[in-house]
Design a protein that fits this description.
elongated, mainly alpha, 2% strand, 2 strands, 8 helices, single chain
């Protein structure tokens, strides 16, 4: 009953739902930048790809909020947001897998992302970044027993569900 009352509230619109999704992505990026600048956690190539996923998802939420489309447009946005979320979740899952490999199976550290972008074609950079390297297997941050890629995976999955619900639910 309380959820139905919330959904019928005049401030609950598809636009405000998408703004909230956008602001969530902004908060995720602000924390990533805080962790980099103040906690000295340099992002590995997979971390950078996860950040790109959060930025793309945030931009989709922002575009949906600005456009405020009808049902057909909301369906398209929900699909695009779900694809972006699942792509980011896939990168986070790969990162988690690398972090849980036995030490002898961890790949060697590769070149930095800046060097790869300057030296190789973008397709090769993405392939090399997605396979990860030894630096991606390091766990240098834990909160409530979970590493940052696990929290990012949870965020992507939650935002995917939120995007589907927020753009496909009938509010009135």
């Amino acid at each position: 009953m309380a959820l139905q009352q919330l959904m019928n509230h005049r401030l609950m619109t598809h636009r405000t739902i998408n703004v909230a999704g956008f602001l969530t992505c902004v908060a995720l990026m602000l924390y990533a930048l805080y962790a980099q600048a103040f906690l000295n956690l340099a992002p590995c190539p997979l971390c950078v790809l996860q950040r790109v996923g959060v930025i793309v998802l945030g931009l989709l939420f922002l575009l949906a909020a600005l456009q405020n489309p009808g049902l057909a447009g909301r369906r398209i946005y929900a699909g695009l947001m779900t694809l972006a979320s699942l792509a980011g979740a896939g990168v986070a899952a790969r990162h988690i897998w690398l972090q849980n490999l036995p030490e002898e199976d961890v790949p060697a550290c590769g070149p930095g992302l800046d060097f790869m972008l300057d030296t190789f074609p973008l397709a090769d950079v993405l392939a090399m970044a997605f396979t990860g390297s030894g630096e991606c297997a390091e766990i240098s941050w834990i909160f409530l027993g979970l590493s940052m890629p696990v929290w990012v995976l949870i965020a992507f999955l939650g935002l995917s569900i939120y995007a589907i619900w927020g753009n496909l639910v009938s509010l009135r």
